[in-house]
Amino acid sequence: MTVVPELEPTTGDAGDRRPPTAAGKVLAVLDAFGPQHRALSLSEISRRAGLTLPTAHRLVRELLGWGALERDDEGRYSVGLRLLELSALAPRGLELREAAFPHAQDLHQITGGNVHLGVRDGIEVVYVEAIRARARNPVSSRVGDRWPMHVTGTGLVLLAFAEPELQEQVLNSPLERFTPLTVVDPTALRGKLDQVRRTGVAVARGQITLPDVVVAVPVHNPRGEVIAALSVVVAAEDARPRELTALLTQASRSISRALDPAQRLPTPSSPQR
Amino acid sequence: MTVVPELEPTTGDAGDRRPPTAAGKVLAVLDAFGPQHRALSLSEISRRAGLTLPTAHRLVRELLGWGALERDDEGRYSVGLRLLELSALAPRGLELREAAFPHAQDLHQITGGNVHLGVRDGIEVVYVEAIRARARNPVSSRVGDRWPMHVTGTGLVLLAFAEPELQEQVLNSPLERFTPLTVVDPTALRGKLDQVRRTGVAVARGQITLPDVVVAVPVHNPRGEVIAALSVVVAAEDARPRELTALLTQASRSISRALDPAQRLPTPSSPQR
Description:
Two copies of one chain form a homodimer.
Chain A: H1 22-31, H2 42-49, H3 53-66, E1 69-71, E2 77-79, H4 81-87, H5 91-111, E3 114-121, E4 124-131, E5 146-148, H6 153-160, H7 164-171, H8 186-199, E6 202-205, E7 212-220, E8 226-235, H9 241-259
Helix pairs in contact in A: 1-2, 2-3, 5-9, 6-8
């Protein structure tokens, strides 16, 4: 007897061939949403989640009641505010974002470029802060965006300072090409990572879109561990990597200081503002 | 025969007395986390979610694999980056935040106060943007924070412009008191809402903490509907409500313009930055 399971949701368990659990089905509904799929009809959710229409309907109703999803005037569903509220509790998101915010903003104003603060999640980088220049956005760069590490400045820094096993895992995985300049050769990438470790900065040109240059530096926690990376993306013709490196290094140190309770300025009893 | 169900999670279905569904249990695990409970042990999750330890363990493992939760070095769980990624897809979060960001930042720099951008969710207000003055934070004001409408500037504005049924629902619900100045009398609150509608601005003193004054204005979408509220919180001795109102009104108009595709400046082919 052949049991044909419903299409499996991505649960992060590669190679897991069991039919989805009840929790897996809930997560599959959430997985149906993405940057290209921000608003979905019930049947689109059902199809993308690999669930029958009645199952999708039941789960969507529960998620709607809880606030994980919202329904617009046209009956399409999108991600709800309850998830925004929950995500603000993510320690790697919130504390970092708060410590980095004024410095990222300064960087953005001084350089006119897009500023990203990225952390590693598995073999990818996720932006926990992203400040975009209004006049230019050929590439999505938003909070929550997830990119392969080898194509982003923040990713190159995080990869260079990751444990060797993780580096090998990435170097041995298929490396996606976005432009003719994207480094997808493992040996070349290994050399690039060596350079990042040696100089403490990643400079890369045209890895995702041709006209862009990114400069990125590590952000350390008070124990000296690399916990995030900070980058500025500017148009190639405006790029002054040495100047950007100096600005980024200064910002990174300020963020580390802001993360260190011992180095925080005491709160004045009569706050100066 | 009496069936004793497990403690019910909050699903938004008030009065629902059925035992939790599988989806409800997943959501109960997520509900266990909150501003005062950012990192939880497995047994704390089990207790707070009202689930048996084996059930909590199984669900936590699934949520961990998917990225909704993360585990720290001490074995405590917290909200994971996958939820940050998902929440960035919330249309009422992202689009508004992006349109508002530069204007909220300007307001913060000019006034030195905390700036909030709030939207209504049910009978509460949720901050989709929050910029805090570094020297002062007696009150949490973070992205994702959720407050009763009657005590916040943004909430008063959103309530004043909400449909009458919703206003009655709030006015007839228990109104929490935070300070001796908090308006908790329905008649007084009704008068306050009238005033907000008449003047287009909410000014409130000491509703959450005594020394604070908040000034808030509505933010309209291109169709003229109130979709959010923008506020500045400053110390009472620094408060110049008329000046703050002028600044907020200007910022609110700029945000509305940024939300209107028809009024956006054309993207230059050679971007000026």
